[in-house]
Design brief:
Chain A: Pfam families: NIR_SIR, NIR_SIR_ferr. The structure holds two protein chains of two kinds. By secondary structure, chain A is α+β, with helices and mostly antiparallel strands. Chain A is built from 16 helices and 21 strands. In chain A, helix 7 packs across helix 9 and helix 8 packs across helix 9. Chain B folds into two domains: about 130 residues, 3-Layer(aba) Sandwich (Oxidized Rhodanese, domain 1); about 130 residues, 3-Layer(aba) Sandwich (Oxidized Rhodanese, domain 1). In chain B, helix 10 links the parallel strand 9 and strand 10. Chain B is globular and about 55 Å long. Classes of the chains: A alpha+beta, B alpha/beta. The structure holds iron/sulfur cluster (SF4).
């Protein structure tokens, strides 16, 4: 065989694939810098500046006006190697040397000096990213299941639709001043997408028409959401053809914009509107509005859907040498990888403690993506994780070694072990507890006890919010926690409210409140629940199914209801005296006595 | 202040300029990495002065002696480099300036970057004859704790902390502002471009005609780099608080802190 032929037969390296869309606008960075100046000089008042800042993706930070959190939008979660590298650099230059992957596929940089935000925006523009409309009363990052395109249960890949929707809405006047934030989630199937807990959730569907042609479309769910009061979304109609996707989206946004509540801050998400109006009435309004939109705008606007499939080319760099397989490989393989519908490929879920990743790890992820993913980019997930897809099965041992070298090979990303925690007191103004750290502590404990390897626990989840708002998505967790404070005499301690049985699949429901658990008792309580499950489980049972039966009152063993559970757990949550156990009164990550301090919130406000 | 040749601008020297001067005995290259690293390879003709040896003396007189042994006379053109973002090199360069040496600059890249560019290295040690150097202290580029304490209350004085953000949040000298040393670099060079450095100061509201005092964790390395970053755009009055935060704390001076937030838990380190 001659050299040229040999080269052609070898898979080629997908060196730094570049995205097709530039989401940035450089002049926004300069405008931001200028506006910060005016604000500091007192020429713009606080409220106006705040609105502007949020519109551009910068949140306030806990207890200070000097710092901001910059939320980088990653539409459909698709992130490219050179973008990971840039974020690494920006985190070292302007943030804390780590970045945070959120539950909505964004990447966040915390503790950024407000005056440096514009520098980050410039850096993002270098790689085609933006933070525009990542916060504020706008359409937030359009999410798409990280398995879209590779999921075994999907009817077609929704990714191009998610990207086209994001592209249509970004900087669109339609979406600049809604009554409240607005969220779109595209899924691959019923299981993977959290479509019923957002304003608009979409699951791809194909139907056969009378003339035997196949029509692409969606199941659309409206008015779901988490928060102080949470709701599960309603399905608009049996089938929404793809041509109607944009009209439906516009119709819903217009209705919300027109009649959504702009006064009552705590009740102005669209779900309240749906709730107050009643679903049927709201549905009819949407259908009617859609007819009008279709009639008046059909000629002018269209979603720009790029259906050209991504090039899949297995990189050459790997699998040349056969090193020995390091310890823990089997466990990692079982608990972090997903067999794609494409023969021979897997998607690898890289778990991060509470979504945190160092600059060096980001750089390593960039290299690893180039070296291992045949599609040449990564996808951010729903659980503060990064997913590498199209990894050839024979490259997995080598990938594991590479991840191990940089501390990214924790097992359990697809199991209960990978707890989710919002930022809590680590940066959020409204936080009452350090939910961020608690999620890390729980994950560490689970891995130490090898609970990620336990098939019974695999489909259960733990999610934690640092206050009654739901950024940590606690209501849809099998075991969910939200933070608060409690006291014994005048001594305060961090105390979580625990709920059970939340889920986000086709039987979506919000967890049922069970008991309040002091922070330093959360791990013992979780372990106790697992112990009780093991004692009472049926053959072929899982923890989440068992808890599901309990919250529905269908369980026949010793624990028949949430009340029973509460009773068994209550001895574990009794506070000791401060003299006996001072540590009980301190939150994780703090050596001083616990007290609650909050500032003016922007997550909830 | 410094001119190695016409194409060179203080305070950094570009790679091409130094390549053409490698064999020129009027230029002395100082490699400030550890001796083991130096022995494994360095820029041809560079001499070794590990920062630790310089700091162990801790007096201007002993510093002068060290430089004399490296063959540095009053009019020798000196270029310093390291492999740690330019921070250690900055501290050595600053010391030279402090003892009154006029002609000193930093190499614009680190040793790793030099190698990445595919440029020559060597394991040979140059033959150096020791020489004489005078001592003319240059106190206006140095700040003591006492000086700083008084100065920082004044309107036209800006105090910059160059440690990483989390260290700064946890404790810092009250009234200081934080520019982490990583902010000062750019892709492939130890310092930002002049334009982006000016822009950074402008955004932060730091006037270029202010008196600027920089400090970092312990011996003035990271803040030494900031000193040169500021010099690169011609800020006239920069001082290094050379004993930095370590001394400040030992003296039990007041310390500021970002309260009521568990920011360390956001780090994945
Ligand atoms: S508002 Fe509450 S739930 Fe949201 S990030 Fe802050 S602490 Fe967490």
């Amino acid at each position: 065989m001659n050299l040229k032929m040999a080269q052609q037969l070898r898979p080629s390296k997908s060196a730094s694939k570049k995205p097709k869309i530039d989401w940035s606008r450089r002049e926004e960075a300069d405008n931001f810098a200028h506006t910060v100046k005016l604000y500091r000089q007192g020429k713009i008042d606080h409220d106006n500046f705040r609105r502007f800042r949020l519109q551009h993706g910068a949140y306030g930070t806990r207890m200070t006006d000097d710092y901001a959190m910059v939320r980088i939008k990653i539409p459909a979660g698709q992130i490219y190697p050179h973008q990971l590298e840039k974020i690494a650099q920006l985190s070292e230059m302007y943030s804390i040397g780590s970045a945070h992957v959120s539950t909505r596929e964004n990447v966040q940089l915390h503790w950024v000096v407000l005056e440096d935000v514009s520098e980050i925006m410039h850096g993002l523009a270098d790689v085609g990213l933006t933070s525009r409309e990542a916060c504020g009363n706008t359409v937030r990052n359009v999410m798409c299941s990280p398995l879209s395109g590779v999921c075994n249960d999907e009817e077609f890949d929704a990714t191009p639709y998610a990207i086209a929707t994001a592209r249509f809405l970004l900087r669109n006047p339609l979406n600049q001043s809604l009554p409240r934030k607005f969220k779109f989630n595209f899924s691959c199937c019923e299981k993977h997408g959290m479509t019923r807990i957002v304003d608009v959730g979409l699951i791809p569907q194909i139907r056969k028409l009378d003339d035997k042609t196949m029509q692409h479309g969606f199941k659309i769910f409206l008015g779901g959401g988490l928060g102080n009061k949470s709701f599960v979304g309603h399905q608009l109609e049996d089938f929404t053809p793809e041509e109607d996707l944009l009209y439906t989206s516009i119709a819903v946004l217009q209705i919300f914009d027109r009649i959504g509540d702009r006064k009552n801050m705590a009740r102005n998400r669209m779900r309240y509107l749906v709730n107050e109006m009643g679903w049927d009435k709201f549905k009819n309004l949407v259908l009617k509005e859609r007819t009008i939109v279709r009639a008046t705008q059909s000629v002018i606007i269209r979603l720009n859907i790029n259906k050209k499939s991504n090039e899949i080319k297995r990189p050459i760099s790997v699998s040349s040498e056969n090193g020995s397989i390091p310890d823990g490989y089997a466990r990692w393989l079982k608990t972090t990888t997903y067999k794609q519908k494409q023969e021979g490929y897997r998607a690898v879920f890289v778990t991060l403690e509470s979504g945190d990743i160092t600059a060096n790890q980001l750089r390593a992820m960039a290299d690893i993506t180039k070296d291992f993913s045949a599609e040449g980019f990564a996808r951010n997930g729903f659980s503060q994780d990064i997913i590498l897809r199209y990894v050839h099965e024979s490259d997995l041992p080598k990938l594991y070694s590479r991840l191990l070298e940089v501390g990214l090979a924790n097992s359990g990303s697809l199991t209960m072990a990978s707890a989710v925690g919002c930022s809590g007191t680590s940066s959020c103004n409204l936080a009452l507890t350090n939910s961020h750290r608690l999620a890390k502590e729980i994950q560490r404990k689970f891995l130490e006890l090898k609970l990620d390897d336990d098939d019974d626990l695999r489909d259960a989840t733990i999610k934690i919010s640092g206050c009654p708002n739901s950024c940590g998505q606690h209501e849809i967790a099998t075991i969910g926690f939200f933070g608060g404070g409690a006291r014994v005499g005048k001594d305060m301690y961090p105390n979580y409210s625990m709920s059970l049985g939340g889920r986000f699949d086709d039987k979506s429901m919000l967890g049922v409140t069970c008991i309040r658990v002091p922070v330093k008792r959360t791990i013992p309580v979780i372990l106790k629940i697992i112990e009780l499950y093991k004692k009472n489980k049926q053959s072929d049972d899982t923890l989440s199914r068992w808890i599901d039966r309990i919250v529905h009152g269908n369980e026949s063993s010793e624990i028949k209801s949430v009340k029973d559970m509460q009773k068994v757990l209550s001895p574990l949550v009794v506070p000791p005296s401060k003299d006996d156990d001072p540590d009980f009164y301190a939150d994780y990550g703090s050596d001083t006595s616990y007290h609650t301090v909050t500032g003016k919130g922007e997550c909830a406000a | 202040m410094c001119s190695l040749s016409n194409e060179i601008t203080y305070p950094t020297v570009d790679v091409d300029a130094i390549r053409s001067k490698i064999n020129d005995d009027s230029v002395r290259l100082i490699d400030v990495r550890r001796e083991e690293d130096y022995n494994q390879g360095h820029i041809p003709n560079a001499v070794n002065l590990p920062l630790a040896s310089l700091l162990s003396g801790d007096s201007p007189e002993s510093a002068v002696k060290l430089f004399e042994e490296l063959g540095i006379a009053d009019d020798t053109k000196v270029v310093v480099y390291d492999d740690t973002f330019g921070a250690l090199a900055s501290r050595v360069a600053w010391t030279l300036q402090y003892i009154g040496h006029k002609n000193v600059a930093l190499l614009e890249v680190t040793y790793s970057q030099w190698k990445e560019l595919g440029l020559k290295t060597s394991t040979e040690k140059p033959n150096i004859k020791s020489t004489k150097h005078s001592l003319n202290l240059n106190p206006e580029i140095m700040a003591t704790a006492e000086y700083l304490e008084n100065a920082k209350e004044k309107d036209n004085v800006v105090l910059i902390d160059n440690r990483e953000r989390l260290n700064f949040l946890e404790q810092h000298i009250p009234g200081s502002i934080n520019i982490p040393y990583r902010t000062l670099a750019t892709d492939g060079k130890i310092l930002r471009t002049k334009e982006s450095m000016r822009n950074l100061l402008k955004n932060r509201g730091i006037p270029e005609d202010a008196e600027i005092i920089t400090y970092c964790g312990s011996v003035g390395t990271l803040s030494g780099l900031a000193y040169y970053a500021l010099k690169s755009i011609g800020v006239p009055n920069v001082k290094l608080y050379v004993n930095s935060f370590k001394e400040w704390k030992k003296l039990e001076k007041p310390v500021g802190k970002q309260e009521n937030a568990a920011y360390w838990d956001l780090s994945a380190e």
